[in-house]
Specification:
409 residues; binds zinc ion; EC 3.4.11.4; Peptidase_M20_dimer; Aminopeptidase; zinc ion binding; Alpha-Beta Plaits
Length: 409
């Protein structure tokens, strides 16, 4: 156990926060610090073809140890951490044999990780937890995934009696700012399919995510001196609020869950002359997703007709799509992961992601890529933690997937 803890800590104590305002890849120079270390480590444990490109995408190969043909599979995770909360000077704390009570992360600032609020903690009574000291995030998202993949490869190298095909591993920068997949060289990677190790609770297995689009609605008004405005002024803010109120109030993030889609108004900027509304649109179902976009267009059309002028303009841009469409035709890749979990005593929790993953983009780039748990909880903040046992289970799942894929049929 100490081995995997040490490895994890050696990663999280290197700051790799990404930056959405940067145009470079990786978005921050400091991501190279961990990237370069990982390259050395992958060579040291004995992987082949270890490479890092000019954008810090890392790839490596574990060659097949069987003579028959086996599909090439891959495991992918990201080494950046979220810009939502600081990842500098992470001081991990180890809680041995967790007793199910409050964990004092920081006595000075009275920061408590409590099962009263985070009841998932109770799943891990008796286990070893790694937490923050309350002042930073932990970076289990997704350095737990990296730890697991490296540890699994090391295990397979040290246990040649476990038969497996060719395994590719890929580590990316900038996932947290939505740019983890876009410079991923799928052809060079050369896998038939892959898994991102980037989920949360032990057992999670995900191959459905949102279809996603963004919409910008511009409302044009007319400014006139308020004292002489009768019949002349058009206050774009009132028109904008009319638009907002036509959309279904209950189809918003705060009123939906599971497979329910939504419109999310996330920004308003305006004055009398012009108001801009920014929405994101989300739905797992392709037809409902299209219907949501069509509804926005229709509201714009109807309001423009009502006011007999082009007061409203809308621009809608697709962002990413549900990977289900790309994974369902190769459903055995989910079945293998599910079987692997059961074989190592993990109960699979198959559910739809209310968001996107690098895997959804990779799936549309030709690499079908479901998502598997990495074990952490409360990502992107000071309450982030990971049970070491969950990381160990993830290592076992990776090895078992490799083994099951290589069984001759
Ligand atoms: Zn992640």
């Amino acid at each position: 156990m100490q081995h995997i803890i040490n490895r994890f800590i050696s990663y999280v104590t290197i700051d790799t926060e990404s930056d959405p305002n940067s145009e470079t890849t990786p978005s921050t120079k400091k991501q190279w610090d961990l990237a370069n270390k990982l390259v050395e480590e992958l060579k040291t444990i004995g992987l082949s073809d270890v490479s890092i490109d000019e954008n810090a995408y890392i790839m490596a190969t574990l060659p097949s140890n069987v003579s028959h043909d086996v599909p090439v599979i891959g495991f992918v995770s990201h080494f950046d951490t979220s810009p939502d909360f600081t990842g500098a000077n992470v001081k991990p704390q180890i809680i041995n044999d967790y007793d199910g009570k409050d964990i004092v992360l920081n006595a000075e600032e009275n920061i408590i990780l409590s099962p009263d609020y985070f009841d998932d903690l109770l799943l891990y009574k008796g286990q070893t937890l790694i937490t923050t000291d309350g002042t930073t995030l932990l970076g289990a998202d997704d350095k737990a995934g990296i730890t697991e993949i490296v540890t699994a490869m090391e295990y397979l190298i040290n246990h040649p009696e476990i038969k497996h095909g060719t395994i590719k591993i890929g580590f990316t920068p900038d996932e947290e700012i939505g740019r983890g997949a876009h410079k991923f060289d799928v052809e060079k990677f050369g896998a038939d399919w892959a898994y991102t190790m980037d989920g949360s609770q032990v057992g999670e297995l995900e191959y459905e995510n949102f279809n996603a689009a963004g919409a910008k609605v511009k409302v044009k008004g007319k400014i006139v001196h308020p004292g002489y405005a009768k019949g002349k002024m058009i206050n774009s803010m009132y028109y904008a609020s009319e638009f907002i109120n036509i959309l279904p109030r209950l189809e918003t993030p705060e009123c939906t869950e599971g497979y329910e889609g939504f419109f999310h108004l996330h920004n308003i900027e305006g004055d009398v002359e012009e108001t801009t509304l920014e929405y994101i649109i989300r739905d797992h179902d392709k037809d409902k997703f299209e219907a949501r976009k069509a509804l926005l267009e229709k509201v714009v059309f109807d309001l423009n007709t009502k006011y007999e002028s082009e007061v409203f303009k809308i621009e809608i841009k697709d962002q990413y799509f549900n990977m289900k469409e790309k994974v369902e035709p190769v459903m055995h890749i989910v079945d293998i992961a599910e079987e692997a979990m059961k074989a190592v005593g993990v109960t699979p929790l198959i559910k739809a992601i209310r968001g996107g993953t690098d895997g959804s983009q990779l799936s549309y780039m030709g690499l079908p890529c479901p998502n598997i748990f990495a074990g952490g909880h409360n990502f992107h903040g000071r309450y982030e933690y990971v049970p070491v046992e969950s990381m160990q289970k993830a290592v076992e799942v990776i090895c078992k997937i490799a083994e099951l894929t290589a069984i001759e049929k």
